[in-house]
């Protein structure tokens, strides 16, 4: 009887230890997202850590058709799930990519601008977005091939550079949150991508 009681006690201890470890991991992740939400660079619509169900309820209407207007992917790796929704960004057609961790908490949002406009129009769109981000966040933490950096004197040269190398600017706040904007050639068109990412969730 004593042996069974000892085994039962040991089993309970192991179970409780396992539960405790799991709870600590959960709290640690929540604290990371909570700290990120205290930073300056944030996604304006939803706080980091917002549940996927909340975002789906807000973004998906009864008139929207799955597979046409939105889709959700279960994924592995950095982001466990990704909700893609067609929408508009400053009167430009776009797709929103809401990225979630394994607990279905929001950790990144990407806006993909690819309206099929001409290369010149997409580069002008990129420059406008860079200018707005500069006005909001100041000088970027990192820059690559940026037109107004002085590396290119003609828009045509910059378009050629984007087609061959891409272009980006990155801002980071003290909490570690990031916003990245990039322009790149995808198949026949230049696309502009803006991504907001919570601290600790980047590559």
Provide tags for this entry.
globular, eight-stranded antiparallel sheet, 4 helices, 8 strands, 36% helix, alpha+beta
Q: Could you describe the 3D structure shown?
A:
It is a single chain. By secondary structure, the chain is an alpha+beta fold. 36% of the residues lie in helices and 29% in strands. An 8-stranded antiparallel sheet has the order 1-2-3-4-8-7-6-5. Strand 3 and strand 4 (106-113) form a beta hairpin. The protein is globular, with a radius of gyration of 22 Å. The termini are far apart. Mean pLDDT is 80; it is low at 1-29.
Poorly predicted tracts of residues: 1-29
Summed up, the helix count is: 4
Secondary-structure element string: HHEEEEHEHEEE
Q: Mean of residue pLDDT?
A: 80
Helix share bin: 25-40%
What is the straight-line distance between the termini?
Answer: 54 Å
**Beta-strand percentage?**
25-35%
Count the E strands.
Answer: 8
Question: How would you sum up this structure in a few lines?
Answer:
The protein has 203 residues and is an alpha+beta fold.
Layout of helices and strands, plus pairs?
Elements (H helix, E strand, L loop, with lengths): L1 H36 L14 H8 L10 E5 L6 E9 L2 E9 L5 E8 L5 H19 L4 E3 L10 H10 L2 E6 L5 E9 L2 E9 L6
Antiparallel strand pairs: 1-2, 2-3, 3-4, 4-8, 5-6, 6-7, 7-8
């Amino acid at each position: 009887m004593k042996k069974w009681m000892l085994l039962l006690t040991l089993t309970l201890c192991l179970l409780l230890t396992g539960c405790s470890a799991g709870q600590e991991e959960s709290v640690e992740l929540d604290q990371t997202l909570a700290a990120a939400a205290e930073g300056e660079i944030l996604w304006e619509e939803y706080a980091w850590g917002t549940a996927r169900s909340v975002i789906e309820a807000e973004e998906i209407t009864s008139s929207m058709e799955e597979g046409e207007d939105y889709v959700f992917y279960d994924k592995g790796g950095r982001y466990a799930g990704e909700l893609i929704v067609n929408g508009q960004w400053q009167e430009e057609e776009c797709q929103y990519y809401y990225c979630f961790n394994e607990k279905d908490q929001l950790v990144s949002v990407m806006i993909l601008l690819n309206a099929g406009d001409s290369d010149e129009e997409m580069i002008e769109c990129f420059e406008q977005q860079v200018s707005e981000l500069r006005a909001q966040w100041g000088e970027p933490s990192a820059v690559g091939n940026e037109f107004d950096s002085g590396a290119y004197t003609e828009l045509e040269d910059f378009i050629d550079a984007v087609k061959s190398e891409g272009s980006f600017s990155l801002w980071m706040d003290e909490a570690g949150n990031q916003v990245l904007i990039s322009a790149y050639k995808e198949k026949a068109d230049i696309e502009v991508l803006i991504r907001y990412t919570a601290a600790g969730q980047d590559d």
